[in-house]
Amino acid sequence: NRRPCTLPRVTFLLECVPQPFFSGDRDAGRPRAMGLRSGNARQLAHFLVSKPCAVPSLIVSQTKMITAYGKNGDVEKAIGLFEQMSHRNQVSYNAMLSVLLDSGRLVSALQLFEEMPRKNARSYTSMIAGLSRSGHVREARQLFDSIPPSDRNVFSWTAMISCYTQNNEPHRAVSLFSGLYRELFESKVIPNSYTLSVVLKSCGCIRSLVAVRQIHSLTLKLLDEAGEGSVFAQNALIDVYAKLDCLNDAEHVFNRMKWKDLASRNIMMDAYAHNLSLDQAFRIFNSMNEKDTLSWNIMMSGLLDGHRGLEALRLFLSLLRLGHDTKPNLSTYTIILTACATHTMLEFGRQIHGHTVKNSLYPNNIFVSNSLVTMYANCGLMEDLLQVFKEMPKKDVISWNSVIHGLGQNGHAQKALEIAEKALASNNFNGNTFSAILTSCSHGGLVVDGLDYFNSMSRKYSIEPTLDHYICAVDMLGRAGMLKEAYDLLRSMPFAANSVAWSTLLNACSIHGSLNIGRVAAQELQMLETDNTKSYLGLANIYSRTETGRESRELLNLLREKGIVKELGSSWVKQIVVYGALWNAVGEVMQQLMQVMTRHCRVHEPEH
Known about the structure:
Elements lengths: L6 H10 L22 H11 L5 H17 L3 H10 L5 H13 L3 H10 L5 H13 L3 H9 L8 H13 L3 H17 L6 H13 L3 H14 L8 H13 L3 H10 L5 H13 L3 H10 L5 H13 L3 H13 L8 H13 L3 H13 L7 H13 L3 H10 L5 H13 L3 H13 L5 H14 L2 H15 L5 H13 L3 H9 L7 H14 L2 H14 L4 H13 L3 H14 L9 H32 L5
Helix pairs in contact: 1-2, 3-4, 3-5, 4-5, 5-6, 5-7, 6-7, 7-8, 7-9, 8-9, 9-10, 9-11, 10-11, 11-12, 11-13, 12-13, 13-14, 13-15, 14-15, 15-16, 15-17, 16-17, 17-18, 17-19, 18-19, 18-33, 19-20, 19-21, 20-21, 20-33, 21-22, 21-23, 22-23, 23-24, 23-25, 24-25, 25-26, 25-27, 26-27, 27-28, ...
Keywords: Repeat
Protein name: PPR repeat
GO molecular function: RNA binding
């Protein structure tokens, strides 16, 4: 008549047993239990689990606890419980394997994987995914090839394809999919929506529109378009078509979708925004009942790219008014600081700076700090720029380049070169670093220093000068009046000069009145851009400065005969009226933004 032992009672007794303590490096080998202090409790627990009625239920309970410990980050407790288990099944091993992989303990996971008495499809899939996250692509492929045919399924196949995609080997991902498709299809292993979405991403990486269309055709055959499960593949199709500049195809997929989730709308909105089809992007944005922070960021970023920064700021104002429903994140502040830099809205930029401090984004977040450097540079505040740069605990190449360029464009060439030397000495440089250095030398008249840096790029720093570097050097020489040297450098370039290069030289000739070189530059520019008035007007300006008024008049008459008209100028009075109206609008938005920001800061003020 004894009542059968119940699961809660066994679990309670096991919880009474103290957790084992461990020693040694977790990844040096499998953790070793050193002992338990409560021997009676352990004996009682083993007595209870020896009852046949309790074993299956206890295994399930302990396995669930292992998974829960892993999700909560209590890996030690998960390991301890796993080692205490007198009986383990396949699910228990897989659960422990997942906990070790998710916590980054790859060596321990590999050891457990080898010790498993039996492995199933989930074991192989988890291990491939873990190796992928650690960048061990070759080992992942070896493991995939060793999977018995009975355990090879769509999940292990997808995991290996995803491994190639995540580790920047998209060609291998597409090759694996196409190479095994027939063989696995005959074994009734059919790619699912997630498989196809990963393959589509790889096709986009290799920019193969032909492959994308083939996978698109496959999705129509294998997936139920009306089913909710096909949304992953359809979202991937929209994204890859947009990135390959096939906006009409992206629209076609989006409009045919029966099920649209938040990601579907965000992806299509982002496609419109990147193509500056802002009205269509706004149409989707305004139709969304549910928006996340990404939705707002996509729209604000699109407006900023479309030179509608004031509207981006108004949208940011609307986001702040939502309160706690949707909050600005790191990307939001970066976008808005860029808008402040574009419109030189210093006071509002300072408000954002203070807000990032309150939200612990500054100075620890490098993206926010880099945006602040750019904003203060555009507003001409070098002390603030240097203070932000000084307070950054970590600096990347963009940080150094932004400071060098900001100092140089504001006339602090010597300070810019001082920072540049530190960047070069600490190996924090790339091609853009030298563009910033040459620009600084150009604005500061430091021709000798600039040429030294230009000539040492490939020899000392292993960076081959690009067309942009040559143009910067031509501009530097041209500003200094060294037009012959600028022309010779342009002619000696290892690649053909573009319109920007000739226009740069022509502007220098116009400033210094060099007729002969100016004529050559104008002719080259006319051949590259027939309808561009810059070449004609630049040459006419040179004629007027060199007292060749007759040639200047003839050239202007030729412009009229060709029907090439310069954009109408505007008087100072007209410009003041136009910019005055714009400034009033900016002032109105700033006033509203400052009010909302002040309220927002009060709401999020930390409690003491």
